[in-house]
Amino acid sequence: GHTRIRDFCSTRVPRPVMDKWVFLVVVRHGERLDEANRARWQQLKRLRPEIRNNPPLTDRGWEQGRDAGLQIRRTLCSRRSLEVGTPTLLASPTSRTVSTAAAIAAELQCSVRPAYELNCCLAAQRQGVENPLNCSEPCAETLGSVLITCWPPTGDPHGTNELLQQRDGFVELTKILASQHDEQGPLLLVTHREGMVQLQYHCGMPRSVKYCEVNYFKYHRETSTLSEWTDEDLVVSVATGDDLVGRDVRGHALYSEPMPTDLV
Length: 264
What we know:
Layout (H helix, E strand, L loop, with lengths): L4 H4 L6 H6 E8 L4 H4 L1 H10 L11 H20 L9 E4 L3 H14 L3 E3 L7 H6 L12 H4 L13 H8 L4 H12 L6 E5 L1 H10 L11 E7 L4 E4 L36
Parallel strand pairs: 1-4, 2-3, 2-4
Antiparallel strand pairs: 1-5, 5-6
Helix pairs in contact: 5-6, 9-10
């Protein structure tokens, strides 16, 4: 099996840094069947009409998720400003995001918690994050060998629906999840294109939402601000927990994608 993340990292950071900052990794889901193989998707919808707004990952999407997990593991271990504990991994409760999270979780040796706040796809914005057409309890095929911690998902679907109608609603939802995070390790979020675009714009990052796009952010608890977390942030004073200082760098993309359909 994989060596746990904490075994890769030798530098321990004192509590003040962890009390002040939450470090986040945000990932878009992998390749989805309806965009990769439309004929197969139409066939599957005829057999299972209840999933018409909830397409699964392709096999390639699973591979992309595993590759993202390896990339995240390497990055978390190289950024020695952070004492890396077991990551907390949350996912939008759609099949494609839960499967992507499961592929990542298998590399990071953690479980997956479905969360309504991360379901920002266009169908959820139109029909509600709790609509069973947009999410249903994951089956073994969706999860692989990974466990989910709960079902139904955590979070407030009504409040999430209201925030998603606002211009920067997903940014606020991300801040809420970060403010609630009370573990030592980083917070990993698997979500959709729309949410990634909002976060990138908010943090002044170039727009890039390819399959299994991986972006890194940091949340400052005292000021409730969200910004990009870069390799340059390693200048943090581990002795005092002084504010991080960084320069803009581009997010990390693993794969390209075809032209999007209207549901993301």
